[in-house]
């Protein structure tokens, strides 16, 4: 949909609509219906090459998991360094745009590795994670985090910071930290869940 | 003519900035509220489990 059709506040309207849709989906029966209809897909995931390799060779699963955790650490590092700079906590001698842009390219690579290794690991334990509520919280947080990062955060941070309201910048940085902390914490919780 | 185009451009830039900042406020406040509620209930459930285990 062309954003110009929505007037000068197209991005804001789309953001509010997506959040309202996510809330409605989470709180309604559509959530349970979608969950039930995905069981077949998760059972199929275990029969794929990724699923068979993950279940048969524990060593391969462990190596992929190591790369998953390393890339999560890199991803978290890029978020920490950029948001702490935006909040003015450290690296204050470097412009925030420089820190954000340099961290962003590393973030993209880390995210690609996180997604690829995450799909591999999910295939190996698909029917287990399907029944874990925390797995779905992680997927929700990951989806929301990616949307927030690419649709809200990066377009905002690409402006001259002196033109932006400092409170908006602080709120964006804190929200970014919270959403990626939720992704990491729920991922760790999947590991604790047997 | 060129001044009108410049004014129009700066007006569009101002709208774009306002739009991006409004979208950021909507998304950020939603995430912050969701995080507060989510972590409150997570911490509450852990406290209840600890009370059940240790009294």
What is the strand and helix layout of this fold?
The complex is a heterodimer of chains A (194) and B (55).
Chain A: H1 10-27, H2 29-37, H3 39-47, H4 49-56, H5 58-86, H6 96-124, H7 126-130, H8 133-157, H9 166-192
Chain B: H1 2-54
Describe this structure in words.
The complex is a heterodimer of chains A (194) and B (55). Chain A has helices at 10-27, 29-37, 39-47, 49-56, 58-86, 96-124, 126-130, 133-157, 166-192. With 194 residues, chain A is mainly alpha-helical. Chain A has one domain (9-192). In chain A, helix 5 packs antiparallel against helix 6 (96-124), helix 5 runs antiparallel to helix 9 (166-192) and helix 8 packs antiparallel against helix 9. Chain A is globular and about 55 Å long. The mean pLDDT of chain A is 91. Chain B has 55 residues and is mainly α. Helix content of chain B is 96%, strand content 0%. The termini of chain B are far apart. Chains A and B meet through helix 1, helix 8 and helix 9 of A and helix 1 of B.
**Principal-axes shape call of chain B:** rod-shaped
Give the helix/strand class of chain A. mainly alpha
Number of helices of chain A: 9
Q: Specify the helix fraction band of chain B.
A: over 70%
Mean pLDDT of chain B: 85
Q: How do the helices and strands follow one another from N- to C-terminus of chain A? A: HHHHHHHHH
* Count of separate DSSP helical elements of chain B: 1
Number of domains of chain A: 1
Q: DSSP strand (E) fraction of chain B?
A: under 5%
> In total, how many beta strands of chain B?
0
Shape of chain A: globular
> Greatest chain-chain interface?
A-B, 29 and 20 residues
Q: How can the largest sheet of chain A be summarized? A: none
How big is the Rg of chain A? 19 Å
């Amino acid at each position: 949909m062309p954003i110009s059709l929505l007037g000068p506040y197209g991005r804001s309207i789309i953001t509010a609509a997506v959040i309202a849709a996510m809330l409605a989906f989470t709180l309604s029966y559509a959530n349970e219906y979608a969950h039930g209809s995905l069981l077949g897909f998760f059972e199929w995931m275990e029969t794929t090459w990724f699923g068979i390799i993950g279940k048969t060779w524990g060593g391969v699963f462990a190596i992929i998991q190591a790369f998953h955790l390393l890339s999560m650490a890199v991803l978290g590092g890029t978020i920490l360094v950029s948001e702490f700079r935006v909040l003015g906590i450290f690296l204050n001698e470097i412009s925030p745009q420089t820190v954000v842009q340099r961290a962003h390219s590393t973030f993209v690579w880390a995210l690609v590795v996180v997604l690829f290794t995450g799909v591999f690991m999910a295939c190996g334990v698909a029917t287990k994670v399907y029944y874990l509520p925390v797995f779905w919280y992680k997927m929700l947080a990951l989806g929301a985090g990616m949307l927030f990062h690419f649709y809200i955060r990066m377009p905002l941070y690409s402006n001259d910071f002196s033109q932006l309201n400092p409170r908006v910048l602080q709120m964006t940085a804190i929200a970014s930290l919270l959403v990626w902390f939720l992704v990491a914490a729920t991922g760790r919780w999947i590991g604790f869940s047997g | 003519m060129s001044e009108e185009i410049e004014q129009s451009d700066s007006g569009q830039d101002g709208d774009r900035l306002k739009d991006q900042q409004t979208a950021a406020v909507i998304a950020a406040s939603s995430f912050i509220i969701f995080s507060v509620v989510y972590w409150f209930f997570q911490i509450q459930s852990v406290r209840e489990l600890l009370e059940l285990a240790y009294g």
